[in-house]
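Sample 3 of the quickstart, ligand zinc ion:
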Amino acid sequence: MALLIRNGEIVTVGSRVHADIYVENETITQIGKDLEAPPDAETMDANGKLIFPGFIDPHVHIYLPFMATFAKDTHETGSIAALVGGTTTYIEMCCPNRNDDALAGYQLWKSKADGKSACDYAFHMSVTKFAKETESQLREIVADGTASFKIFLAYKNFFGVDDGEMYQTLELAKRLGVIVTAHCENAELVARLQQKLLAEGKTGPEWHEPSRPESVEAEGTGRFATFLENTGATGYVVHLSCEKALRAALDAKSRGVKIHVESVLPHLLLDKSYAARAGVEGMKHVMSPPLRAKHNQEALWKALSAGSIDTVGTDHCPFDTAQKLLGKDSFLNIPNGIPGIEDRVNLLYTYGVKRGRLDFDRFVDAASTRAAKLFGLFPRKGTIAVGSDADLVVYDTNYRGVVSAKAQHTNNDYNGFEGMPIEGRASVVTVRGKVQVRDGKFIGERGRGQMLKREPTHL
Ligand code: URP
Ligand code: ZN
Ligand code: ZN
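Result:
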């Protein structure tokens, strides 16, 4: 089926142009003025609208057994939420824990997505221990098209690796040309500080942040960078939350370390006062790294605008109110995480572009193109060009609304950004040429999504 989108303003990194886009067999085949389409082609007029490349969320959790429970989404609910929000590809963290077999975990994570996602997807493979079988298993996983790893320096005895395991993972990644993403917090310090606070009777969600202060994240980021420096591997710090950690990453970068940085919407827009709200309202805003003091946001936005923060993801990880209440007697038991896959693009557009913090280049780059380049998806994804997949977002900048749990598609009963005004939304979204969202509603084909096979690109 062919598709012709007429008269839109196509926005890619470094270019804004009014033109038509013609799609055949899932791929963009022509971009130009006054294109013709055969009579049976689907056509639409995008006059007055922007057309962005499909947005890419480089950090989501869909299937996640974690903290005595499971994150709430399935690939069906999560992908529909993603698409309604303009995200056409997400990269899920495949997270078997230390006691699981990595290869069996990888197959399990794949089976959860297979035939279920309405948008395309890929995985980062978590390395949560380094045992004698790990190298051969990781080689097999990379050969299967999953060319990025994930390590956790936090979550001691569950997902967390020690320094020796981090070294072995990075050293193998360097040989394979695979990028390693990392959650950077010092696990030992977190465990000690948690016990100290609990012993002092400090049990509420407001104590989650003091149990993993900025210095703990800065240490983790600096240590990861030092290990990258000494192995020559390429790294990517996920959900960097504060100025101190940013400085650690950028200091390393300035000495030539191959380190990239992701921040996520909660840290750009919310602050630690949200976790100090009374009762379960505070618990809803518990994530790791925690929401920080507000002054950090300015540093994050500046670095994002300059491109020294590469990408904006979500770390989408929905737990509902009942699950959050598992931690009513101790912040240690509050499942860490917050949903966001549906709201990322609109919030970044509204509070980035519309508020003058980001130009269009950086917006498209941070929310799509840079992730495609770092994770081996470019130019299939992340741009609008002849030969690229026809993942297109026709964006209505005249739309006005508010974020609301009532209207959301993610499987959760709250939204951490509840009530925030948004000034734009995706009106039409295509996945490989098929319209999946129209007038802001999912009208597409469930299960259309494909797992994206990626080659190592960091050789
Ligand atoms: O609080 C968070 N971030 N939950 C999800 C797991 C992780 O650390 O990414
Ligand atoms: Zn994390
Ligand atoms: Zn995460």
